[in-house]
Each structure stands twice: as C-alpha cells, then as structure tokens.
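agent> Task received from the user: take the single chain below, predict its 3D structure, and emit structure tokens. No templates, no multimer pairing.
agent> Plan: (1) validate residues, (2) run structure prediction, (3) serialize to tokens, (4) report one or two observations.
agent> Step 1 OK, no nonstandard residues flagged.
tool_call: predict_structure(input=
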Amino acid sequence: MKKIIVILFLFLGSVLGVNAQKFAFVDTQYILNNIPEYKMAQKQLDELSKKWQQEIETKVAEIDRMYKSYQTDAVLLPEDIKKQREDEILQKEKDLRALKKKRFGTDGDLFKKREELIKPLQDKIYNAIQALAESKGYSVIFDRAGSLSILYASSRYDKSDEVLTNMGYSPGEDDSQKSKSRSRSRR
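)
tool_result: status=success, residues=187
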C-alpha cells in the first residue's frame, strides 16, 4: 500500500512539475536586425566579400587571357614552351582555388571576420535571453529563427522585444519581418 501511495505522489509531482514549466520563444534574426551594430557588421562583411570577389574575378580574367593567348600561339610554339605555358596556367588555376578557399572557405577570411564581428553580438543576445529566462522563470526559450520548427506559436509567448529592451535597444523597427515570421509559424 505504501508503494502505491509513493508512486501516486511521484506521478502527481511529475505531472504538476510539467505544468509548472514556462516556455517562450524568441526570433534571434529579428533581434539582430534591430541592433545597429549588427547592421554595421553586416555591411562591413558585404564590402569585404565584394572586394574579395573582385580580387578573384581579376584572377579569373587573367587566367582566361593566358589561356586564350596560349590557344592562339599553341600551333606555333615548340613543345617545351607549350609545356611551360600550360604549367603556368595550371599553377594560376591552383593559386585561384587556394585563394577562393582562403577567402570563402569554411575556415576562410570571411568566416573568421564574421566570427569576429557577429559572435560578440550573439553572445550578448544569449546572455540577455538567459537573464530573461532566469528573471521570468522560463524553463525553455526556443529560437524561431533557427532550424527548430515551430508549427504554431502564439505571439504572446514571443519575447524577442523584451530581449531587445533588456539589451538596451528599441524594438519594432523590423516589425514587417516579425509579422512575416509569425505568419510563417502558422503554416
């Protein structure tokens, strides 16, 4: 009999514990879009990306020019000169691949710069979310902007504006995106 009473109390305790948990969600992309530092960082990344892309396009044009010149002269060139020019073109192509990887690869310059500029903002958002969760007693806060699929979310649980306010920013500039993401969540 005591076992049944203990099991009953454990069951009731777990049921009540589940009901007592509070959940909320935020949209980190909406939060980022309302932070001026993020917009400046994104602009800086775009400018670097364009600059590096132009650098690559210049190298591609140089390789194309070399190849066309080689094709035009190939009939008249001795074999050793042909081989030398082919090797030069192949080396330029190899250098181009290395440059692309250096600039845009998984550990490339753009990735590192993005980490340098965006990571501190993401950390700041995470700290604000953690503070909000602790102060309001939320057990879980989901991110609607990430890969997590939320099929429906009531806007009353969206704490994105509160996170922005706690970080010292004014919410609301990007309301169109927020309403779009809300309608997306209802699909």
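agent> Step 4: summary for the user.
Strands lie at 23-26, 140-143.
agent> Done.
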